[in-house]
Fold these 4 entries.
Entry 1:
Amino acid sequence: LSKMPPKDAPKLSLAAVRQRSLSVPGCRELPLEAGANPNSMISFVVGLDEQDSKQLARINIFVQTGTVGTSRILNGKVRQTFRRNVTSLDTLGRLLRNPEKLVEIDDALVSFDDKTAQAAASSFQQRTLQKEAELAEVGHCILQVEKEKLEKHLKDLSAAAANNNSSGKKNHVAAKQQQPKKKGPAAAKKPIKGRDSDDSDDGSDDSSSDSEESLDGLEFQFSLPEDVMAQVDQCLRDIQKLDKIVKGVATNGEGTVFLYGNGGV
């Protein structure tokens, strides 16, 4: 069984620390201050190979406790950081090559006077108001464009409605002009196809049949959106490819239904 080291044994060896420091570029051992124990502490200066003097640092190693202290100069004052319980020579070599950096805190982030606070608040408010004004201007431009689109759409709808009314009146007049003139009382009692001649004696006339015959061959004008008309043309071409006959068409301006073949088959 291996023997455990005594509790008061040093965590680092002075000889091993000196040997490891020789492999670190820009590292040189410093003489200890008066009163320091040479058997428990050793000091080095690192960063001598760097051109920037800010990279210089003093490393104090306490071999008994394994504590490594790094000293740097910040704002004309010496500041220190400590790493405890260092027992590995690899960790020690890494600290000698790259000493720990000091944590710098910007005083402007921690405290500032009332004048600075008021200036910052005023600048922030000015930037906020300017940004809101820019957003408002962009929104106004968008609303103006939407208004123009709606006005154009309303104008087109009004023109289409007026065109439809005019076309409907023309078709109605044309239908009346093409209706055959009735001659004598016998024309009012024209028998309906498929019924007996006696059924015509009940006093009902054949106005619906005459209306259907009078509308035969007439052409009607209508106006639909271009995309709807394109879909209608495509449907008619597809039905023609199926070698079917269109029986009826119904539309509401947005959609169109075709009845073709034998009841839609």
Entry 2:
Amino acid sequence: EQTAQDNQRSAIAVSFPQLDPLYKVKVFNPYPSFRPTCGHIWPRGFPLDHVQGQGAANWTLAASSLARPPAIQQFLADEDPDVDAIFRLTRQLPCSFEGLPHELPSTLAIPHNVFLPYNAQATSHLYEAFWGLLLPVTVHGRVSDIWRAYLTQKLLWDVGQVVAFTSPHVIHDRVAHDYLKDFQSEHDLYLKTTAMVSFLASWASDAPTLLERLEQLWAAFYSRGFVELGDLRLAQAWIRDLLVVGYDFPDLRLGKIMKVDAPQGVKARSEF
């Protein structure tokens, strides 16, 4: 029988950004929390209307712990981090991250109901999040992983899981790009991300299983023009293939939403 001491040993130490109750649109820019050397910076796919702040960055951080490792873990990259073409056309690189404040756990876990983009570069999906690996193919590659991130986050919360960011483990030596071509390729990110986040914040399903909700949300993405029909069919085939190979979809864990109520500097335990 597992004891309280065993549970404490298995806890995963993380830092949580503390929600501002006056901040209505729940999007979060994680980059400033990791103390970038280049000043203000934002990740590719972050809603442009929140780039200049509006409460989307530099939230107070508090130490906490999780009962399970975060199901999706994004590792930052030094020198040429993942930013959009607008940043590259208007700001100077290289840029590195010094990490979270030393008195806090080095992993930044994102609370439920807070959206942010994560990419397909140096990102780990644990088994519990394998269902969220599918990348859409009817949008440009500069858009594909960001659309996947927003869709997956919405459903990740339904299984009691979170996305986490950690300090850089890689140095990104990016091959030469034409930034104006990147800008054109990222067109959907600039013009549709805010609408996508607004839609996802209000989307709800009463389907009793994750796989049903996954298909429903891909269908909703198609009906609202975020992806084309080919991606809906691909998602349906993806779900069938996961079932065929015996993938065990996680159960819904509604009502298990984590909360971090401890003041700054006080460690609180968050159970799923």
Entry 3:
Amino acid sequence: PVLTSHPLLNYLSLRGYSEMARLSHKAVKEASVVHGEEIVHPNSVADRFIFLMNGRLKYSSDRSMDMEDMHEGMRFAEATLWLKWEYRGRLHCEDQSAYFLTLDAPFFRKCMSRCCLNEMVTMYARLFFQLMIDTYKHTDEASDLFGNDAAQMEGLVKTVKGVQDGAAKFSTLGLQRGPDVADCFDAWKEEWQQAQKIKKAKRTFFARFLSLFKKKKDSKADSLQRSEPSMASID
């Protein structure tokens, strides 16, 4: 129920329940903190997408003197799922205690890149990235709290649904000239390259198998032809 509070994850659960069940079992962890305890700090490698269940957290960015409250139901660092991300600010507990769930970003990418949902998450990732650029002009300026605007996120998912349902073509979204997922999202690059290696290995294996099969077949045919008596020898 917590994961499905996010529009895309809710949609994915409807389209690929088994993959999302596996993700929930393997990649979701519970955590709690007490007052003043730090959860993330600036410039550290981001590997967790956080869902705040109860309590209140405080977020401060190095690029701004402003501090923002993070309340129950809010999410933190969704960009970790789609981009090679470093936390842009500091997040600590402001209440007596707080409880939250984390989604392991590397495992999420690994799981999604190898299942039938890959096309959908790739499409959403590119739309998310484009929305971030439109909002901040550059990802270095983006907040870790980006992604909490329900209307914006639901709009992205609506676009993904439209493409999946055949109501639109991805090439009409203004992203057809954008960078390929392997170049644009460094976070996915390793998984993408690994998938390409596996595909290449499979093609090589089948090519060798067919070559050996053909050689064996040709050899058998030559053997049969040599063993057949010629008309001259019969006469």
Entry 4:
Amino acid sequence: RDVLQRLSTTYTTAIVTGRSTEKIYQFVNLDDVYYAGSHGFEISGPVSQPISCRVADEFRPLLEESKAYLEAAISTIDGAMIEDNKYALSVHYRNVRPDQVESVRAAVSAHLETQPALCLKHGKKVFELRPRVEWNKGSAVLWILQALGLNQCKDDIFPLYLGDDITDEDAFIALRQEHPENGAAILVRESGDEERKAETNAEYVLRNPDEVLVFLERLVEVQNEHNA
């Protein structure tokens, strides 16, 4: 958190996550950061730049109904858990016995067959139910850049995106398409991580959170050296 705080006072910094904006703000509790929660479906900026974007408000009642249905459907499966991320439902099966994972998948699939307005996405040991809308983490990144007017000065900025989840691939793709020569998509993946395939649209790889910390600290140091 200390490094993130120093980073956000030095560079324009955003956190793009599958968790709700409210949850991630409570966890990070920094006011200089842009937050894009629910896989980018809800975006908010700091007081100094109060941008705001909500893509799927009309889906909220359906997601609440789906949560209630799925909680009942998986209630007998030990370790299965549903996380309400406002504009997405995360059905976690990390703590489910391997022979019971298919039961979780079947419950989710059966529900989706009756809810064409929702779609299924996959993450690390999680099934994600999201509104069937053409929007993802990549859309959120590009929206933030546009809202801040940074898309008008592509030659003067160098966006970086770090992510470890399968859903971050959308952001990697968007960044490489919009900033093919002056931006970098960075996958965070430990060697041998079976939950996260090595195939990626990112250009670079950091091997673990420790390397991420070193990388972010170096970014701050570079700017401080430049300002000295």
